[in-house]
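Friendly challenge for the regulars: who can give me the structure tokens for this chain first? No prize, just bragging rights.
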Amino acid sequence: NFKAQNFVPDSSFERNSTIPIALSSLGLNGSWSAPTMGTTDLFCECGKKQKEISESNVPNNPMGIQKANSGKCYGGFYLFSHHDYREYMITQFMSPLTGGVKYDLTFYLSLADYSRATVEQIGVCFLKGKATYTSSGYMTGLKPIYLKINEEVGADTVEWHKITLEYKAKGGEQFLLIGSWEEGKIEATNVKAPYSAHTRINQRTDRDAYYYIDDVSLRKQPAVYVAYFDTIVKPKIDTLKPTVVTHPTIDTSGNSFS
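First reply, four minutes later:
Bragging rights claimed.
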């Protein structure tokens, strides 16, 4: 029944100043932001009138068709694209992490329907200070932890896939950064979006790998309690001897013998 606190303030990208209409709108969220010049996206379910003009609708948008894993919103970013272009997202924890304590990081990924490629891995960083980068390329000077996603997610565009990581905190980490550094093996999906989709994913190359992300959580692992016994109580030995009862023996003649 243990339910630890989630250190991520807005796991499912729901707390936004307004419903996004255009792409590149992660800045509308109160907890998540893009730390580089890359244009990380925010998608939310729109009203009937907004759907006609929205590029960030849920479930239908220029990147594909996907319902939220929970709530009505989710994020989206390129984990691989032309040249060195990459997209990232960062959030501040509810409180700093405690050194020596183990935490479980969990988030859900879904490959966008019109994505032209898949990547082998995604990177995360636990930072003491907020990272910013005045470029749309790789973020340098960091040591990301890589999580393999090719076997779990693969080329599936239908389901949300749970990605997990156990992290032992050094102490004082206040920010979580998610994105792409070394992508590992990149594979083409050979997907062509329908003409009516008007997708923003480059359909002339097999290089754009686009993923949705939802339900990001970081929780402290429950403490393990071990019962210790200071002394071992030995069972008492009964020193009383049992009483032997002698019964008379009776022969067939009817005489009794003791």
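The chain has a mean pLDDT of 89. The radius of gyration is 31 Å. Your move, everyone else.
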